[in-house]
Each structure stands twice: as structure tokens, then as C-alpha cells.
Here is the input.
Amino acid sequence: MAADSSPRTPLRIALLGHGRMGRLIEQLAPEHGATVVLRLDGSNNQDGSGLNRAALRKTDVAIDFSTGASVTSGNLERLCDLGIDTVVGTTGWDDRRAALLAHARSSRIGLVHGANFSVGVNAFYRIAAAAARTLARCGGYDLAAFESHHRGKRDAPSGTALRIIDEVRAAGWSGEIDVTSQRTGYVPGTHELQWDSAADTVRLSHTARSRAGFARGALAAAHWIHGRSGVYDFAECWERVVAGDGPSSEGSR
Ligand code: NAD
Here is the structure.
């Protein structure tokens, strides 16, 4: 995604999570017309305790790349109640997703959430669905899904792998899917689908080169959601985010 070089006032970001992703977002923020005004992590935000009106008074948008447990134990509810537009990239909170998204909707904040903020992965979802639709009609294929991530990643299968599987199912793949997760070394993220038949193998693969694609996608989403109302899955709004379309009468505040 191209860096944003327009001379407007920088978007003021509160970072929830200051680990691998949070630090990278802070580093790339100036290239994307944004500046980090608040950093919260596990040391100063237990159960969302660092999120209050005073701390957030200069924040335009919060970006959460923390842990699934901290999203569900206070972060997202507090941001909704404080009326702060938010981008959530954190994974591993599926068990409370429906309730938290309903809360966000009723609070009228703008929220973009997504298991993967890489534009390439979001294109991959569509390609995977198209392949699944075609190969389900052919018959005779077994499907295996494989994902590999660095040793620090907690949830497995990854949120991205779960999303790919949802897309494949929605496209009509009703057969078994053999899912394998690997946690090793420093891999930023690899996802593969392999259809194997007696005659041949069809393989789709996405390999992240670094975490920068996730960080740039989240920063673009932060600009897009600011001043907008409603809950958006990045997988559904990424093309509008990339195009940089401004708030419309639909859902704007
Ligand atoms: P990390 O382990 O490097 O960092 C996690 C950070 O969260 C740490 O700074 C920790 O102190 C902080 N934290 C813990 N409790 C907190 C709390 N209550 N409030 C605020 N911060 C808290 O992890 P990471 O690699 O930066 O990844 C973070 C999350 O983002 C993970 O869930 C990961 O799966 C996800 N992720 C998503 C994408 C995407 O594109 N959506 C890409 C990469 C990673």
C-alpha cells in the first residue's frame, strides 16, 4: 500500500499492545500521516484499566494488537463506551466476538476488525473461494490447509486460517479439511491450501515477507474508520480502505 504523503494533521493513535506489531505500527505511522500519542500494554492496562477519558483525550483512533484475553477482558468494551473509533487486529477472541461486535454496533463507534490486515491475504480469501468452488465441482480431491507462524504466536490454527476455511466452506466445499499448524522460529505468516487427487495437486500459497503489510493495512484502516460509524470486517472493506474513500452519508458521523 502506498504511503500517505498528504500534508494533513496527523491522525492521533492510541496503541493497545506494544509488542512486535505495536512497535512496528509506531515506526511506520509517520509515513502514513499518523502519530502515536498513547501506548498501553500488559504493564499499564490490566483489564482495560488504562483506558479512560483523560488518557484518551487526544486520541482519534485506537489500534489494538494485544492479546485475545485483553480484547475480551475490557479493551473493546471500554473503547466503545468512551466513543473511540477502533481498529482491532488482535486474534484469539472468537468466543466473545458476536457479543462484542453487537456492543460496538450499539455504541455507534467505528470499528474495523480483522484476522489479517494484509491486502494480499484478503485477495487470497477470494482466490481460495473461487478454487474451492471449482474443485468441489470436479470431485476426487482431498483438501489440506497448512499454516506456519513464529514461535511467539499463541492461537492455533491462526485466525487467518480459520477465515480461509470459512471462505472455502461458504464456496461449497463440504468435504473434510485436514488442518495443520506449525509454530517455529520467526516466520511472519504462511498459509497454504492443497487439493490433491490421483492425477495432480493444486496448491495455493500466501507468504508474508514481513509484518509491515499488516501494519500498513491497520494504519490505512485507522484513517478510513475515523469519523465513520459501524462495524466492518477488513475482509469486506479492504478495497474501499485501499482506495481511501472518505466517510459517506452511509454510516458517517
Ligand atoms: P506480542 O506478543 O509481540 O505483543 C502483545 C502485546 O500485547 C505486548 O506488548 C503485551 O504487553 C500487550 N498486552 C498484554 N495485555 C495487554 C492489555 N491488557 N492491554 C494492552 N496490551 C496488552 O504480539 P504481536 O505479534 O504484536 O501480535 C499481537 C496480536 O496481533 C496477536 O493476537 C496476533 O495474533 C495478532 N496479529 C494480527 C495480525 C493481523 O493482521 N490482524 C498480524 C499480526 C499479528
The first strand starts at residue 11 and ends at 16. The two ends are 26 Å apart (CA to CA). The beta strands are 11-16, 34-40, 61-64, 85-88, 110-113, 142-149, 177-183, 190-196, 201-207, 230-233.
